[in-house]
Structures are given as structure tokens and as C-alpha cells.
Amino acid sequence: MRHHLAVFPGSFDPMTYGHLDVVARGRRLFDELVVAVGRNPGKESLFGAEERVTIARGLIEDLCRREPAGAPVRVEAYAGLTVDYAISIGATALLRGIRNLSDLQYEIQQAVTNREVAGLETAFVVAGQSFAYTSSSLIRQITALGRDLSQLESMVPPPVVELLKSKKAQHHPVLQRLLMDERDA
Q1: What pLDDT does 68 receive?
Q2: What's the rounded Cα separation, in Å, for the pair 181 and 185?
Q3: What is the pTM of this model?
Q4: What phi and psi, each to the nearest 5 degrees, are found at residue 48?
Q5: At 5, is the secondary structure helix, strand, or coil?
Q6: N- to C-terminal Cα distance for the chain?
Q7: Per-residue pLDDT, 183
């Protein structure tokens, strides 16, 4: 019988409750899950690659302790094309979360390309209603522009809120750019 290993790729900058929801559901669908922390060359990251891996590992270890039934999960950083990474570790599928119609349109295009180019299937899970409009980009904007970051507690776990507060206090360049963009608009 074939071992079904799925890769859930993303930049996870930062990891949200929506991401954790996809992980929890992926654990029920596959024999093993790899949360693959990548770099989007089109975006400047708020958290460095090592920070994102460390954050993801901590949150996922906590999730697996709270929900012991389910497939094992490991977190790894990768560079390059997602399909190349997935094939190199023997993945049978990519796991993707769908929040809304625009996600679906983009993800279907990616899934067809990945199947044609690499023979790799994609499994989709639809986000829970409370996660339908949460994105890492939105989290970064609220962090840059908001006064009270406790409003993020419904979107990201408490350790992430604390790390975001720290980045804001340090006047991180990504947050400063978002602030300047808003002022120039």
C-alpha cells in the first residue's frame, strides 16, 4: 500500500489560524504531512526563513499535542520550485487551502500546471467560515497600521501576536514600508 505524503507549501509570514486549520484537516487526509516553508520571491518577508520555521514548528507541535489523533507533521524550509521540492521528498500531493473564489481560480491554474509539468496532484480544503478572509498580507497590514494588535487574536495564535508586537516595536522595514505606502495613498 502506498504511503500518502502531502506537502502544504507557503511562506507562512506569519502563520495564521487558517494555516493551522489546513494542517489539522490535512492530518486527517494523508499518512504524513510536510509543512514546507518557502520564500516567495515576489514578496519581502516580515519574518526570516528560520523564524518562520521555528514559529511553525512550535504552533504545529502544540496542535499535535492538543489533537493527538492524526498523521505526523514535520516542518521544513525549502528553496526553489514547490513541485521540485515535493517530488524530491516523495510527496504524492500538494495540500492547499481555499478561502474564496479568487483563491480557487489561482489555485486551479497552479494545480493544472503542477499536474501537467510534474505529475503531482493537488488536494484542496475549503477554509472554515471564520478564516475565509484572513491572510498573512492582511495581518502584516494590521500590524503596520493598527494601534492595538490584540485585535489580531482571532486571526493568529498568541505567540504570533507577541512576535508581531516585537516587530512593530523594532520598526521592521516591511512594516515601515506598509505604513509609508498608506500615508502616500
Answers
A1: 94
A2: 6
A3: 0.93
A4: -70, 165
A5: strand
A6: 57
A7: 80
